[in-house]
Structures are given as structure tokens and as C-alpha cells.
User: Fold these one by one.
Assistant:
Number 1:
Amino acid sequence: MNILSIETSCDETAISIMKVSGGIKKPSFSILANNVSSQIDIHKEFGGVFPAVAKREHTKAIFPLTIKTLKEAKIYSENKKIIPLDKKVCKKIREICSHEQELAESLIEILPTIKKPKIDYIAITTGPGLEPALWVGINFAKAIALAFDIPLIPTNHMEGHVLSSLFKEKKVAKGFGVQTLNKVSFPALAVLISGGHTELVIMRDFLKYKKIGQTRDDAIGEAFDKVARILDIPYPGGPEISKLAKEHRKSGLNDEINFPRPMIHSQDFDFSFSGLKTAVLYYSQKVDKTKDEIKKAIARAFEDAATDVIVHKTYKAVVKYKITTVVVGGGVAANTHIKEKLTEKLKPLKTNILFPRKDLSTDNALMIGIAGYFQSLKNKKGANLNKVRANGNWSL
């Protein structure tokens, strides 16, 4: 089957098309096309993602990017005889895209010029994420599904991060071969660390999830970015914080700053990073944070504290639930220090640990296609378009 997947949960418009075969236990994926339109440069002036701007940019990018992806996948062809869309379909598309009228009119004008592509399912991120951004993708996907009569599969963004980490280590590129998944033995633990989420989720099997812990305030990636702003590092600041921390460790200097490790010894599996961020703020007000060595020392102390909490809670969950596989997902999963410390801590337990490839750690449409495939096995007819909403719940 061919799956068109769409991701617009934050500041990246991502579209991919993959051909999938095999069942739930041994699927194989051939990526026919994969494209991302990033908004990072636009949001730098705001110091973070501004939802109204994200929505605007998604609306501008999503249709042209989809056409480009269809062409690269070689499943795009033009209608020789153009027959306008049925009036009822046009009315419904305008209703669906009532907040994106220009997009609606573009769809109504251009879709009749395109032959129905060989797409079996459309997978769309329905949450969690920024609602204005999510709705652009959702409404666009619903309109395409309606016009071409293709089943629509609502997909959870975090489930996508989990499943994308199962891809074997092989660089994603245009025109590459078959991709397969690493073997997972259950029970597994998903460690989700990103700009918007910090969660521990038990997986008893594919599509069977139970959340056992989450952040009570800031997500770990959010804390990285807030600390970056405290240190006057432009958005996105998380990678730069890690770079400074790494430089400080290489310098051989001692880390004399000792920031708190919030909730590290709590009896549950929840997290809290707001207090850690505040501790960084108070400390930085007492020192000259413009000096490179001080900035590096603060970055290292912060990263060490955040890492210790993630590693300790993960280890405790692995022991308690007799976990055999740990799956780490989300943008912060690319953090080298966290990766090294988690691997080191879990090594004595002989627990298999999987990290996403670098190209799949940030938001992308491939992960939505993977999750959409698994969901399509459960719901072959697709969703009722009238019931598809922005929704952050697991196991849709």
C-alpha cells in the first residue's frame, strides 16, 4: 500500500509518501518521497514558535509541498480532460477549510487538474501540538481525502516518535531502498523527550500503550530552550546548550555548579523542569554570563542535572516493569550526553535500547506514515471525516 503522510504539529510542514508491505510484525517501508519545509528562521525573531505565524506558513506551504512530493514519488499525473469538482464537494471543502479560504479555493481549482494518485491511505497528525498549526494539516488532509475518496487515518504525534525510533540505522534519502524495523521485545518502555513532551510510556505490544509518567510543567526540550534564552542564545537554543556543555567537559575543568535535580527521588515517574530552569536564572543573575567559560559551565551544569533525572527515572521504570526494550523518541533524543548516560546506565541490565536516527529525531512525516500504517491495520476503513479533530490522546 502507498501512504501519504502529513505533519504540521509545530513549525515544520512535512509531507512523505511511502510504500508499505508486510504485517504488523515484519513491515517493510520504501520511502518514495520525503520533504520538509522548516520555519525555524521565521520564528527566530520571536525566540520560539509563534502559533499564528506557524499557521500562516503551513497554509502557504502545504499544497505546493504535497504536489512536489507526489511528483517525486512519480505518482502525479495531470487530467487531460478537466472536470470541475462536484458542487457538493466544493461546498464541503469550503466548510472544512473555513479558516483557510485561500487554501480551499486553491484546492477546488487545482485538484480537478490532477488524476487521483495511487494513494491507499492519508495519515495525518491530529495531536498533540499547536492547535492552529494542527488544524491546517487536518483540514487539508480531510479535503484531499474527500476529493479523491481516500481513507484518512488520524495519527498521534508521539506515537510517531516512538515508532520512528524502530527504524534500523540507515540514512533516509530520496530514491533509497527498503527500510525495515528493529526487533522489539515486550514489555517495552518509550522514553519521549522533546520540546513539548517528557513522558514514560509502557508498551505491552504494538498499539498498546500506558502512560506512567509525564512532566508536571516544562518539557525537557522546552527547558533547554528557556535556559538558552537566559544565556542570550538565539532560538533554537537546545543544540547550542549541548554544544557549550560538551566544550566545558572537554576543557577538563571541574563542574563547580550544582543545580537541583527536581523530583529525582519522588515515588512516581513524573518530571518537573521548571524549578531547574529557575535555578539557572537565579544563578546567572549573580555571575557575568557574558563570559564564555561561565556560560559553558552553566550549560554543562544544567544539562547534567536534566540528564540525571531522565536517566534515573528511566532506570527505575525498567527495573520495576521488567522492561526488555527501551525506545527513546523526540528531538532531545539526539542529545549525545543523554544518549551516552542512558546507554551506560542500562548496560548492566542488558536492556535493548533504541534511539532514532538523527534525520528522524525531529518532527517529520515519515514517523506519521509509520504510525499511520500501524493504525490502518486496526482501522482499514479509515476515520469518519466529520469526527476527525485535533486530539492529543494516545491510541486514537
Number 2:
Amino acid sequence: MFKKLLSETIIYGIGAILPRVITFLLNPFYIDNFEGADDFAKFVNLYAIISVVNIVLTFGIETAYFRFSANKDEESKTFNTSYIFLALNALTFLVLVLIFNKPIANVLDYQENPEYIRWFAWIAFFDTLCVIPFAWLRFNNKPIQYSAIRVGQSILQTLLVLGLFLWVPMEFPRTIGLEEKVAYPFFSNVIGSLAGFVLLLPIALKVRPNFDVALFKRMIAYSWPIMIAGFAFMINENFDKIVQRLMISPFDAGAYGGSYKLAALMTLFVTAYRLGIEPYFFKQMEHKDAKKRYAQVTEYFVVAGSIIALGLIANLDWLKDLFIRDPSYWIALDIIPIIVIANLFFGIYYNLSTWYKVTDRTHFGTYISWIGAIITLLLNLLLLPIYGFMISAWATLIAYFCMAVLSYFLGQRYYPIPYKKKKILFYLTLCVVLSVISYVIFDANYIIGNIFLLSYLGMTYYIEKRSLKLYED
């Protein structure tokens, strides 16, 4: 079971991580070619806004699809009902934004570039149409097809953006409304999202006009708290970048966004894990050993996540030269270890959130997520003008830590899972302590950092060798 889960997670990881790695690798390219940090702040801000829009449009239906498809008698009806609902949602949104794009651009302070708003409406439209087909691939254990489409989209998008920057004469982009270089990634994203929709058409064509109203009501009752929780998550992830553009200098906001991209390597690991594990959680919920399996998976995640977090922090000294080539952006480097550890806690929270999803108590997810969001909002609004962008990083860490702790205690009350608490706390504490010593005391020296990393790996292997032997048997 765990071998199958691991192999699928690795394949999903390719589909989730490789496109983002490609985007990540383009980060220094954008820094070199945009007209300063202000342009980079504009770039980061628009993507922060569309991520919030996507949460609203998808309405938590993806998770509801997994939950209700677990009942074989309702699998087909769940697929049809989910897709029809999201398609209508996406179409309504697209029409409204195309009609009111100029007023929206004025409100968001993009009055000189309303075409950005129209492009992002098309991106959100096509991405929403792809949600259920991608979920169908995950639920039906087709990670290769899933990853192939994701990677294909990313390669096409990357080739387009590189072509616009490097090979196409500047006169041509202007003929299609690309007046500024910051617009090139947006336009390429539209084409990439359209390509994803086309590649997923064979699955979309499986949809039948069978909208089950009774099932839809049950799905909405289950999903709307997830949507609200997702909105809170987007606040935790993106409010800092949005508010910084208004409350601190554009240069500082751009430096923060550029450094955050490097810290987001940890997010890629968490995302790949989530793609493989979410269908697994629901498929196992009726198994007699479900709680034991949930505990084991969480333990494995903490071990793997701690190793990756420590590895990133240990190697920041040379990673910054490779991915953030403009030294002026390095003023924000100190946020990276904080954001890396914050995302480790978010991954732990995701594991600990299993209890309210499999027991249909999704409203608890809303409460927990909004407690985290309120922490993010208050700390940024009250302290950002005083302490600068560092407070945004600390707010993210505090929010995710509190969410993980709350989810654990509530989960143990309503759906107790036998986690090995002492072992998990040992791995986490050791990871954080070694990270602090490496980055702060030894000034991010990568030799010392990697000595710590190798020591951590050796200790982990020594502790887990009996489990590894059982796993091999």
C-alpha cells in the first residue's frame, strides 16, 4: 500500500513540481528583464489576486468530488454534477469580468492595463474547467496522464514566454497588446491554460447532462466550508504580497516577492504530497486500520519534510546566487528560513486536517483556517509599517503553527488518531534547532549546514532502520 502511495506521489510530484520548478527557474530571468522591483511586485500581486479568485470559483468542489466519489454508487453522478456546477461558475465569472474589466482595473490600481484583468479572467476560466478532469485522473489512479498534461502545459507556456522575451521582435508583442514586458508571462499563461483545457477534453466529454440536485445540496453543504477555509489559506499565502504593495516601498515588496519564490521550494514538496495523498485519505476512511495508516503517513511526512526543509536552509548561501542573481533583492533573504519552516507546519496541518474531512465536519476546517487568517491579517496590518517585510514572514509561521496545534487537539477529541507524538516532536525540534544554528550562528555557511544535514539524515536512518527493514520485507 505504502509503496503504491509513494510511487504515485512521486509521479504526481513530477506533475506538480516540474511546472513550478520551471516557473521558479524563470524567476531570475524575470528579475533580470523586468523594469525593476516595482514590475516584479506587480507580477507577484496579480498572481496573488488570481489565486484568491480560483478558490472562490472552485468552491471546494474538488475535495467534495473525492469525498462523494468514494461511494461507488454515486461516482458517476458526482462527476457530472461537479463539472456542470464549476463550468457554470466559470462562465458566469468570465462574462462579468469581460463586461466590467475597466472598473475592476481601476479598483485594483491597474487602470493603465485593463487587459491584464481580461487575461486573468481567461486564465481563471480555463483553469476552473480543468479542476474536475484533473481530479478524475487523480481519483482513478492515473498519475502519469495527470503529470504529462501538467508538464506539457508548463513547457508550452515557458517556450512562449522565452520566445516573447528573447526571439520575437518587440514590435510583434505590441501588435497583440503586450506593451510592457511584465505582460509576457500573463499572456503565455492564457495560452498554457487553454492548452490544458484542450488536452483534458477527452475527460470533459465524458460529462453527461445529469445534474443531481439532491447530491449537489449534500456536496455544497460539505464543500462550502472548505471554500471558506481555502479563502483563508489564500490570505495566509498572499495577503502579505498584496498589502506590501500598499504599505511599504515597491522595492522592498519586490525583494520580498523574489526571495519568497526561493522559499516556495518547500511549498512544491507539500503540493506534490497533497496531490497523491488526498484521494488516498478518502479511499482509506472505511478501512479498519484507517487511523493507524493516517498516523503512519503523517510520521513519514514529518521525516521527509524536515529533511527537505533543513536541506534548503543549509544551502541558501549558494542557492541565492543561482536563483536571485540581483544582489539588491538579498535584503529579504532572512525571510526564507522562516517561510520554509512555516510551509513545513502547513504540510503537518494538512495531515492533521484528515479528521474533519473524513467525518464530514468541514466547518471545523473553516474555523481553524480563519484563526490563521486573522493572525496573518492583524500582524501585517498592525506591524508591517513598523517592522517591514520580516513581520509578514513571521506572521505566516505563527499562523500555520497555530493551525496545526488547533487541528491536532480538536482532531484528538472528535476522531482520535494514534500519532507518535514524541517522535514527531523530536524530529521537528531537531530540524528547527539545527536550522537556527546553521543560519544564524554560522551565518548560513553551507559547509556547516550540510554537515548538520548529513548528521540529521544519519540519525534519522538509525532511528528508522527497523521501520525501513519492515517496509522492505
Number 3:
Amino acid sequence: MALLVNLRHLEEDSRQETGELTGEELGIAGLDELIKTPLPLKYDLEISLMDNALLAQGSFELTLKCECSRCLKPFDFPIREEAWACHLPLSGEDAVPVDNDCVDLTPYIREHMLLELPQRPVCGDDCKGWKKPASMSSSDSSVEATEDAPSPWAALDKLKLD
């Protein structure tokens, strides 16, 4: 369900909207295999009309379930916005779409959330990455084959561009 705001309800006074949106409703679920959205985004917004524009301001929070891109350990990545504000004109060339006197705020929250998603989730600044298990010995032939293989850049090192 989208976050729809009825403009007729705002003609007399601003409204307080609280609720939840799932990752599927926001359109951010499944964007990255290392980032999952099993928990909903919780929002608390005050929405008002201002001089032929809609003003939404408030807070929201979402906890992502991530896998570290270095060591593949699971960790939580909280996103909290305490002072979010969005000014949406209702007329002019930048006017937001109005359908049956309702404006959908979901795309604007989605845009903000996409900017907050980690590009490469890392469990911590001190993460050293994946460690080779002790059960893998250096006599393993598959490991030796990759270590003894020539560098793919070796051919470029011989290239002379004079």
C-alpha cells in the first residue's frame, strides 16, 4: 500500500501520518543480493498545504539485514532520518501528479532511501575480509594452480607505447 495523502483533508489543517511501508511497497526490495528488507520502514510525518504546495516533514527508520561484502557475515544496518522534509509543488512544470485529490509520497521516500543504501555493505571499519579456513592447506592443488598462474597483466607490462 502506498503512502497516499488526500489534499482535501489538508484544506483546514495539517495532518499527522504514522505507519509502515514494506520493502516491496517502497520498491527497494531485491535491489542488491547483500541487502535484505525483511522489516518495514516506520514513518511519522506531518503533512500540510503551503501556498499551492505540499510539505511533508518528519522522521522514518528502517533496519536493513545485510551481508558484509568483505567477510559475508550478517549484520544490521539501521537507517534513521530524524528531520526529513519534502516540498512538493502542486502546480507549474514541477508539479507532482495528483490522482483523485491524492498525492503519493512513496516515490519521494524511496528516492531518499535509495541514497541511504550502502553501496558495499561492510560490517565494520576493521573488517579484514574472508579468512582462509585452517582446513585448506597450502598443498591444495587448486590453490597452487591460481598462485602459479601468470598475471593477466603480464602481457600489458611488455607493451611499449613509444
